[in-house]
């Protein structure tokens, strides 16, 4: 697929059965590359119990199921991978433990040098944007700048965190990021989830990657 793909991030708190239903609705709207089960601060048991319910649903929809930070829960729930952003050492350990069978992603670095250093561990993607900040209507300027810089210069795929309004999505897609992350735009919208995903895919279709000369 020669254009950015959707990378969905769950809210930090949710009911697992309700979220499973919402994820199923998302898949009826079109292409979704992966879903990150984002439960910061939750216990390993809580993350694993939730992942046990959501991972099969995500995988049945044809997407990769990723677990935030908790490598133990990710492994036990048969998730497709893990997103680790606590420290460089944690990233290195995750890469050593999970690859090549599973995905390891990272992000949240503040400096370009750190982003390059973390990518050198061999991660599968680098995430631009802060998962723990309240979302704005538009993507943060630093997210746009970081993703555009990365997409132009480096081979490791990158994810750019969008804002919570779909009409601001073209700016994010235009960075050339391989994936565009959506959170509140999907789960808190008054529009049906399937329609949100369908509209997001239409926007991404309009932003194909430039042809390599």
Q: End-to-end distance, in Å?
A: 18 Å
Low-confidence stretches: none
- Broad shape: globular
Number of helices: 9
How would you sum up this structure in a few lines?
42% of the residues lie in helices and 16% in strands.
Task: Reconstruct the topology from this structure.
Layout: E1 5-9, H1 16-27, E2 34-37, H2 44-60, E3 64-68, H3 71-76, E4 81-83, H4 88-98, E5 103-107, H5 112-119, E6 125-128, H6 141-153, E7 158-161, H7 169-173, E8 179-182, H8 184-187, H9 193-205
Parallel strand pairs: 1-2, 1-8, 2-3, 3-4, 4-5, 5-6, 6-7, 7-8
Helix pairs in contact: 1-2, 1-9
Question: How would you portray this structure in words?
Answer:
This protein is globular. The chain has 213 residues and is α/β, with parallel strands linked by helices. Helix 2 (44-60) links the parallel strand 2 (34-37) and strand 3. The protein has helices at residues 16-27, 44-60, 71-76, 88-98, 112-119, 141-153, 169-173, 184-187, 193-205, and strands at residues 5-9, 34-37, 64-68, 81-83, 103-107, 125-128, 158-161, 179-182. The protein contains nine helices and eight strands. It has an eight-stranded parallel beta barrel with strand order 1-2-3-4-5-6-7-8, surrounded by five helices.
């Amino acid at each position: 697929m020669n254009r950015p793909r959707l990378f969905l991030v769950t809210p930090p708190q949710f009911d697992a059965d309700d979220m499973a239903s919402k994820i199923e609705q998302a898949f009826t709207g079109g292409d979704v590359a992966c879903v990150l089960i984002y439960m910061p601060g939750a216990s390993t048991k809580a993350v694993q119990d939730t992942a046990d319910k959501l991972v099969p649903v995500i995988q049945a929809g044809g997407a990769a199921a990723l677990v935030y930070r908790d490598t133990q829960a990710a492994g036990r729930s048969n998730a497709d991978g893990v997103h680790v952003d606590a420290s460089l050492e944690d990233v290195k350990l995750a890469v050593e433990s999970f690859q090549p069978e599973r995905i390891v992603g990272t992000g949240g670095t503040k400096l370009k040098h750190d982003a390059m250093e973390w990518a050198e561990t061999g991660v599968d993607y680098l995430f631009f944007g802060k998962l723990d900040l309240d979302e704005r209507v538009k993507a943060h300027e630093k997210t746009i700048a970081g993703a555009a810089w990365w997409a132009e210069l480096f081979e490791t795929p990158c994810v750019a965190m969008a804002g919570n309004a779909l009409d601001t999505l073209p700016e994010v897609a235009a960075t050339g990021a391989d994936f565009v992350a959506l959170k509140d735009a999907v789960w808190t919208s008054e529009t049906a989830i399937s329609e949100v995903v369908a509209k997001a895919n239409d926007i991404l279709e309009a932003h194909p990657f430039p042809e390599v000369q």
